């Protein structure tokens, strides 16, 4: 599936995702980019609001993978 992305955004692929189903439509190779963009978005948000973000950065790949592999929100997850 080819997706049009915004060349001016720091998170062009993430900007196209609205639901877990949108994430599952991506190619496996694009999932890493989504995780990288989520990490960048977290860093940008914390740089404005302040706070602690280490734990959030540590679960980006895990959370992205869970939503990619499982049929969320239909599959129930215990976190």
Give your account of this protein's structure.
The chain has helices at residues 20-24, 28-49, 54-58, 60-69. The termini are far apart. By secondary structure, the chain is mainly α. The protein is built from four helices and no strands.
Could you give the topology of this structure?
Layout: H1 20-24, H2 28-49, H3 54-58, H4 60-69
Helix pairs in contact: 2-4
Keywords:
single chain, 79 residues, mainly alpha
What is the gist of this entry?
By secondary structure, the chain is mainly α. Helices cover 53% and strands 0% of the residues.
Give the overall pLDDT as a whole number: 88
Rg, Cα atoms, Å:
13 Å
Share of β-strand residues: under 5%
Return the string of H and E elements: HHHH
């Amino acid at each position: 599936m080819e997706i049009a992305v915004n060349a001016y955004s720091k998170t062009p692929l993430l900007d196209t995702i609205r639901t877990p189903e949108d994430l599952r439509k991506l190619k496996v190779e694009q999932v890493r980019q989504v995780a990288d963009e989520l990490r960048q978005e977290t860093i940008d948000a914390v740089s404005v609001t302040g706070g602690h973000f280490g734990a959030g950065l540590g679960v980006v790949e895990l959370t992205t993978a869970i939503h990619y592999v499982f049929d969320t929100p239909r599959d129930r997850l215990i976190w």
